Amino acid sequence: MTNTILRALLSYWWRSPLQLFTFLMGLALATGLWSGVQAINSEARASYDAAAATLGEGQFDQLVPRVGDRIPQSVYVDLRRAGWLASPILDVTFKGVRFVGIDPLTTPTQMSSSSDSGFSLEDTDLIFGNAEVASVLEGFVEVTIDKSIPPGIAIADIGVVQRLFKRNDLSRLMVLPEQPIRRPDLVKIAPELVVQPSQQIADVAALTDSFHLNLTAFGFLSFAVGLFIVHSTIGLAFEQRRGMIRTLRSLGVPLSNLLSLIIVEMGLLVFVGAVLGILMGYTIAAMLLPDVAATVEGLYGARVSGTLSLRPEWWLSGIGLAFLGAGMALAVRIWQIMQMPLLSAVQPRAWAIASAKRIRGIAILGMILLGFSGLLALIGTGLGQAFALIGFLLIGSALVLPWLTIKLLDFAPGKGVITSWFWADTRQQMPGLSLALIALLLAVSANIGVSTMVSSFRVTFVSFLDQRLAPELFVRVEEEKTASALEKYLLERELEVLPLLTVERPVVGQPAKLYGVRVGRTYRESWQFLGADPDVWDQVSKGEAVIVNEQLARRNNLWVSDEVDIAPGLNIPIAAVVGDYGNPQGQVVMGELLFRKLYPNAVATSFGIRTTDTANLRKAIQADLEVPDSGIINQASIKSMSLEVFERTFAVTAALNILTLGVAGFAMLMSLLTLAGMRTPQLAPLWALGLTRTWLGVLELARALGLSIIVFICAVPLGLALAWALLNFVNVEAFGWQLPMFFFPADYAFLGGLAILATLIAAAWPAIQMVRKPPATLLKVFSNER
Amino acid sequence: MLLELKDITKSFSGVDGEVEVLRGVSLGLDAGETLALTGESGSGKSTILHISAGLEVPDGGSLHLEGVEINGLGEAERANLRRSEVGIVFQQFNLIPSLTVEANIGFQASLAGRRDKTFESELVEELGLSDQLKQYPESLSGGQQQRVAIARALAVRPKLLLADEPTGNLDESTASAVLTAMLDLVGRTGAALMVVTHSAALAEKMDRRVRLKGGVLL
User: Fold this and answer.
1) A58 pLDDT above the threshold of 70
2) What's the pLDDT band for A713 if we cut at 50, 70, 90?
């Protein structure tokens, strides 16, 4: 009996390949986008974990110099002799690869060897790195490939790295967890060092969590849009099989057997759809991963492997979510079958009529959710609440849309018989089309919201670059001697020279960069502040106050006139807060004099130069001071490079935007196609009364056009509300900065055009089917034989 | 007695409240006997048929099939009895649209676990369906679909065959041919037949005729 029932159930899909395709594709698209994003996230997290495990960052306290970034080897020897258990590390960056030299004898074991791949630094002069690093360093040094080494890192014995770069000092010392009970104070042995507690060291995974949460949110949105397709397809499949289910039961199939086998049947299909989705997700992830790697590196300086692994955590979560989503849709249908009287009439449109009755109730629920969203906007704080706000906003609007569309259709113009029928028929189609329209609304509004955020960010970023990159030329030298010669050379030419003095030290307990600036015309004219005292630059120049960047201010709830610690025991007031969109770290800007007093050993090796004759100055510096060409960069190059990084950073968002719109277009196509199959009995009488098939096809297209315009009109305010929430809540929490919101009407019009075009393409297929429908098919409607 | 209905009552909810469709109907049917159930539309004919098949549960009275009290059975047990002992020919045929004619004919017999392909071939031959075996129901005429429904109901060799207006959608000559074939096959299988019909000609061919009016037997 089981085989017979299962064969009957599956025969439906065999005879309805379009339904099967819709079902599998809907599920595959939903799972694909979700698992693709999860694949990217898990790959990135694996890279961060590998980096933390290999380098010990975030796990152990470290000893770092109070000033500069070098520790003489003798200091390490003194510490060891005094009983301090520490392990030396030398960090050198070359060709974008971070060489990490460690001492295999004193370092924690997991850093000098890997049980997974078997690499070990003991008694070897080998340098280990992954395949990417090996290819970058080809010709410079031979790298033994080991896939367990995190991306962008070459690891070797400290002696090997010292020899390679002709160094005899150290970068930092890792304090081992077990120390002798009596050890002398650090101040007595090495006063030039300071302990940096492990929790103060930038935890890359924590820093990038916000970015990945953004990606996850996008993946979830795509999954939700895809699930609308699955929900709609499952609903339609059950509705069309209502007759078959009735027949099976009347022929003696017990309800429990039937339901069990329906669950098995759906389980098989969901599994196939989910596996297709996983394959699709892998492809999407492989395509997007390089851009994500660029984004994460650009925003946080964290390295992510460019190659994708098939990790169980993302493909299992994809399959799990596919079963969960389909299960939710299935549960509703199973409940309906259980409630369905055995002899209930088979009404192909019964579900649609029943749905129509629920539209108002659903709209009320949507309005309540919108109310919650508004409430969160007023009182909510934190990233979780920001996403809850966006979730309520999107879901609430989606639930209100069908009711709102019907209400808007009441205002549709036209008095003729055909026009009246057309609008009435459109209202009747709403239950069947509402899921597709909701998918379109979500996709278009997400596009408007995210593109508004990105474009607002771009406008702000360009203005930020204009402020920060005011000097026409930037020169970087390697040697301190050359640096002082260069400064003298430039000052002799009576040029405005802006030395870039910098040190890294914790501020308000968090890693930060301190800058010393030469206050002059450039800073006074170029910099714009988010909040400032009227005489900012005078205060900064006199060393009476500092400027902090927005990230530092917002994360620590600081603003103008609050105080920050810029050196041990020295707190100084904030004169201004400046927008900073180039990095996630906190920054403190102080006057040059104060900086040199606090950090006398810091030397500027980079300079910004104001000049009207860039080309000749460049040639002169090269000729007179033998500075290599690569050390001199003009303003335009840096600007275009920065903008390139910016564009690449948001390439992932743009790709996800397009994919989401594609999924919505697909949802629309499938809804229209499935509805077209059921509409013959409604259209045949009109054909019999004198409307041509071509005219009926044109009316179908016009309906799709009208509905997509309504959806677009609703999507614009929703998208702008989404952008507002992203800019004012999510960005502040995720990146630490708040951006002004700009409007881009031309972009929205273009997007509206795209959405309408996608809908028209989706509507074209069923319209053509209508035009080509043989009269015999239409006549069957009037025959008892149907 | 194969089928015995005693004091069966049944009501349905209508727009104006409860509508009493059957008011104490008692009826019996012996093995091999044929019975025509006639009456005006809405008199309760189809309801008696559905109750006899275990598709509907009566509000009152008792119903025995081969001595088993059907009212006392659960949903699964009634389904089990229906698929193995009862053949039903619905007015709207209720074929499975996604299965071929051949698969439809053997469907209930497969469910009951007693498929007999030789017997199915005889049914196909007798009902003139040999050329339609690989076709799907949507491509058949009403008469052909009716014959497939009859073949499906008989293929399980039921003890009780219930038919709701089996010739209602057919022209006179096709109706006559289908009825002749059906009666011949019922005779050969030894099944009892209860037919709901408006057709006097069809009723005339049954062993017994009962008329229903306002929910009671006349």
Assistant:
1) no
2) very high
Cβ–Cβ gap A252/B108 under 8 Å: yes
Tell me, yes or no, if B95 comes closer than 8 A to chain A by beta carbon. yes
**What are the boundaries of each domain within chain A?**
1-54+210-346, 58-201, 354-455+652-786, 467-645
3-state secondary structure of B183: helix
Structural domain contains residue B8: no
Check if B108 contacts A (Cβ < 8 Å).
Answer: yes
Question: Phi and psi (nearest 5°) for A87?
Answer: -125, 130
The three-state secondary structure class of A738 is coil
| The pLDDT of residue A786 | 34
Q: Which of A60-74, A146-160, A541-555, B165-179 has the highest mean pLDDT?
A: A541-555
- Total CB pairs under 8 A between chain A and B: 80
Output the pLDDT for position A211.
62
Cα end-to-end distance, chain B, whole Å = 21
Instruction: Enumerate the residues of chain B whose CB falls inside 8 A of the CB of residue A259.
Output: none
Which pLDDT band, with edges at 50, 70 and 90, does A773 fall under? confident
Distances (CA, A) of A143 to A127, A134, A136, A156, A450: 5, 5, 10, 10, 42
Tell me which chain A residues have a C-beta less than 8 angstroms from the C-beta of B53: 250
What is the pLDDT at residue A703? Answer: 87
CATH number of B201's domain:
3.40.50.300
Supply the ipTM of this predicted assembly: 0.80
For A251, the closest chain B residue by CA position comes to B83
Q: Is residue B48 part of a domain?
A: yes
- Tell me what percent of the residues of chain A surpass a pLDDT of 70: 83
Q: Tell me which residue of B187, B189, B185, B211 sits closest to B200, measured CA to CA.
A: B211
Q: Measured between beta carbons, which residues in chain B are less than 8 angstroms from residue A15?
A: 97-98, 136
Which chain A residue is nearest to residue B145, measuring alpha carbons?
Answer: A785
Q: What is the pLDDT of residue A348?
A: 46
List the alpha helices (DSSP H) in A650-744. Answer: 651-678, 680-688, 693-725, 731-735
